[in-house]
Write a structure and sequence with these properties.
The protein has 175 residues and is of the alpha+beta class. It has one domain. It is 35% helix and 16% strand. It is built from 8 helices and 7 strands; from the N terminus they run αβαβααβαββαααββ. It has a 3-stranded antiparallel sheet. Strands 1-4 form a two-stranded antiparallel ribbon. The longest helix has 10 residues.
């Protein structure tokens, strides 16, 4: 899918989702306001320790093995299942979803996944490739949320991630 078409036909026309999101713990906001959103690899290179890392040891190790530590993960909605898991496990005490300008999807090196990025067998690909396969209707259009089939389609689509290399600069974060 052409990214300009995606932004115009789905994001701009949506009454639900006008941005992408990054979830984090409220404790991390001051650091984010100073540096932007940095990948774990970039944080390590700069010697920066974040107050409240969102992932558990298993998820961090899995992401590192896959080379995902060089990306900042974004989600398409404020209902990513990994945020719920991080909150339930206590990794995130007070969740905050930061809105991110959607044109970040056009930055060079951006990748996307159709499922949680550190899940075994999930291969990042270009945003256009993933968007062609993603159920955009349940993310960007109104639907009958009482319909079990629609709920299942949405549950699957919510797991998608956008992977931004190294940094989401402050000018993309709408805070």
């Amino acid at each position: 899918m052409d990214l300009d078409v995606f932004l115009k036909e789905h994001v701009e026309k949506s009454v639900q989702q006008k941005t992408f999101f990054h979830f984090t713990d409220k404790q991390n906001l001051d650091l984010i306001k100073t540096y932007g959103l940095l990948s774990r690899r970039k944080l390590k290179e700069l010697g920066i320790r974040i107050p409240a890392p969102g992932g558990n040891q298993w998820s961090i190790e899995a992401a590192d093995r896959l080379g995902l530590d060089r990306y900042v993960s974004l989600c398409l909605t404020t209902a990513h299942p990994m945020e719920y898991t991080a909150r339930q496990s206590g990794q995130i005490k007070e969740a905050v979803y930061l809105p991110i300008r959607p044109d970040i999807i056009k930055v060079e090196g951006v990748m996307m996944t159709h499922d949680v990025s550190n899940k075994a067998g999930v291969e990042p690909a270009s945003p256009g490739e993933i968007l062609d396969k993603l159920d955009l209707e349940v993310l960007y259009r109104r639907a009958d949320w009482k319909d079990e089939a629609i709920k299942e389609r949405r549950k699957s689509a919510l797991k998608s991630e956008i992977l931004i290399p190294d940094i989401v600069p402050l000018e993309y974060i709408l805070i």
